[in-house]
Design a protein that fits this description.
- By secondary structure, this protein is of the alpha+beta class.
- A hairpin with a 2-residue loop joins strand 7 and strand 8.
- Helix 1 crosses helix 3.
- It is globular and about 50 Å long.
- The N and C termini lie far apart (42 Å).
- 45% of the residues are buried.
- It binds ligand LJHFKMAZ.
- The site of ligand LJHFKMAZ has 15 residues, from strand 1, helix 4, strand 4, strand 5 and strand 9.
- Keywords: Lyase.
Length: 258
């Protein structure tokens, strides 16, 4: 059995000191997915002790592009904490992370709680107030991004930050699977994708999340932000870089790194 409290503490320390740890799947080869999620919760509890709170959740590994990039074959989730939310208007210090990457996705703001195992796309749509263009900063507290599924789960879904664009679009005004996205780095277009890349429809990712959380007795709360997963692969970040993603009908989000 894995000592999840100790592992959660190790991940917390790695993040704080910028000293990554070896893959947990090597130091604890028998770690189960349940133990990895328990480790994530222990990390989150440790972060609460510093005074932060849950702002929402991220769903990861919902697109083929990200699954292929990281060599995993199924979605996971992590917690977005209040101190992980950055503003579009203030450059984010790349030096506060170990090996940061940025990715672009559709996010949702909830107006109702979502509970339970038998959630449908319709239930999820009713609980969402707005769709929002979003960037997620990901990072790995595991050395050199050498992660297997259980490593990234334990490491809070490799999440490090979120930036929300300024637009808020009601779901009635947008067909999420057909939203086209373009990604620009320092003014040059580097990638493009479509909402359907996320499990066919980003709302299905939220259904997946509600069901996955239910197994661990966690529900989604009104006011939370849910990042539904990157549409295209993540991009390495260096200080001085500016990234922007434009989404048809949804607006844009920008993030600059100092
Ligand atoms: C390792 C992180 C993956 C994601 O955040 C994603 O696929 O969105």
């Amino acid at each position: 059995m894995v000592i999840t409290k100790l592992l959660g503490e190790e991940i917390y320390e790695a993040e704080k000191t910028l000293k990554p740890i070896p893959p947990i799947t090597e130091s604890h080869p028998g770690i189960t997915v349940d133990e990895a999620y328990e480790t994530q919760l222990q990390y989150v509890e440790r972060r609460f002790a510093d005074g932060t709170r849950v702002a929402g959740k991220k769903i990861g590994l919902t697109s083929k592009a990200m699954q292929e990039m990281l060599g995993v074959d199924r979605p996971d989730y992590g917690h977005i904490l209040e101190d992980m939310i950055f503003s579009e208007d203030t450059p984010v210090d790349a030096g506060r992370f170990i090996a940061p990457r940025v990715e672009f996705e559709i996010a949702f703001i909830l107006k109702q709680d979502i509970n339970g195992a038998d959630v449908t796309v319709e239930n999820v749509a009713e609980a969402i107030e707005f769709a929002v263009p979003a960037a997620e900063i990901i990072d790995s507290r595991i050395r050199d991004w050498k992660i297997k599924f259980e490593d990234t789960v334990a490491d809070n879904g490799s999440s490090a930050g979120a930036v929300l664009g300024n637009t808020r679009v009601p779901l009635a005004d947008i067909a999420l699977p057909s939203v086209r996205m373009e990604v620009f780095k320092n003014g040059e277009k580097i990638n493009e994708g479509q909402g359907s890349a996320v499990l066919g429809n980003p709302l299905k990712a939220v259904v997946w999340l509600a069901e996955a959380l239910h197994q661990y007795g966690i529900s989604l709360k009104a006011g939370e932000v849910i990042l539904a997963g990157a549409l295209t692969k993540a991009e390495d970040v260096r200080s001085g870089d500016t990234f922007k993603a434009t989404f048809d009908g949804l607006g844009e989000v920008k993030v600059t790194f100092s």
